[in-house]
Amino acid sequence: MRRIYEPQNLMEAELLLGMLASEGVEARLDGRDLVGGTGELPALGLLGLTVADDQAQYARELIDAYNAASPVAGDEPESFPDVLVC
């Protein structure tokens, strides 16, 4: 098992876990239970995505592609139903 990425927060970690699973990469999130200790523990380095050694290169490529992606222009909806705009 190899730690391949340190997500910035739990939301990013869960998103990446789902993305990796959809590509057939079995990943594990280390440090999920430590997030509640932020403030008493260091804020950085608590979370880490870990994958099998033989899938590490492919998983790293997927995460690099995710980080390099930018929004598609015109992909935004015209309005957001049931959202109050202030």
Question: How would you characterize the overall build of this protein?
Answer:
It holds the Pfam family DUF2007. Residues 1-65 form the DUF2007 domain. This protein has a three-stranded antiparallel beta sheet with strand order 1-3-2, covered by helices on one side. The protein has helices at 10-22, 56-68, and strands spanning 2-5, 27-30, 48-51. It has 86 residues and is α+β, with helices and mostly antiparallel strands. The N and C termini lie far apart (48 Å). It has a single domain (2-68), classed as Alpha-Beta Plaits, CATH 3.30.70. The mean pLDDT is 83. It is built from two helices and three strands; from the N terminus they run βαββα. It is globular, with a radius of gyration of 16 Å.
